[in-house]
Amino acid sequence: MFFIYALTLPLVGALIGWGTNLIAVKLLFRPYRPYKVPFLPLVIQGLLPKRRQDLARSIGETVESELLTFDDLVKQVHTEEMTKRLSQAIGDAVHEAMMVRTPGIIPGSIKKALADTLADMVEDRVPGIIDWLADEVAQAAREEIKIGRMIEDRMNSFPLETLEKVIFRVASKEIKHITVLGGVLGFLIGLVQVLFLYLARVADTPVI
């Protein structure tokens, strides 16, 4: 009988530990909607579905205030290199327009000189205009665009089924480790129980 206990207790403990950890991981998402347990004043719902709006709001506020502010986005777009490329593009467009639209009676050399001069003037003035426009647009957009709110709305509208698949796919190794660790701990607890049973059995054995 003791041999049966020594064999089954660790195995049952491992199975229980593995199963409970697996269920705990699943309960992060399942059930998606509140489920009323029959005959009991108990309603069950997955942690993430239940706290979805709170989590989305908290993540949105954290991202907007700590990780990705509107000013950060403006800095990524409004750079010296970007301003230089825009100025060059506008200058080239002005030069091409002058060459095409200038009356044909004007000699080509004069037409090219005028186009070059006007393009250079535009390229010199454009950076200041771009800086002014960027500041004006950024100020107006800052009042209208709320990054945190956008993230919150997107997370609230994201299908829970898809979110669950993504998380389980990305964290598959960690989830597996959690369930395996539950099995190992359950097995160790079973061994401890076997040890206590053995000590109790030895203590009850009469000394001849």
TrEMBL record:
Q: Which Pfam families does UniProt cross-reference here?
A: DUF445 (PF04286)
Q: List UniProt keywords, sorted A-Z.
A: Membrane, Transmembrane, Transmembrane helix
Does Cell division count among this protein's keywords? Answer: no
Q: Please give the start and end residues of each transmembrane region.
A: 6-29, 178-200
Q: Where is the signal peptide?
A: none
What GO CC annotations are associated with the protein?
endomembrane system
Task: List the subcellular locations.
Answer: Endomembrane system
Q: What is its main location?
A: membrane
Q: Give the protein family.
A: Belongs to the UPF0754 family.
Give the protein name, as stated in the record. Answer: DUF445 domain-containing protein
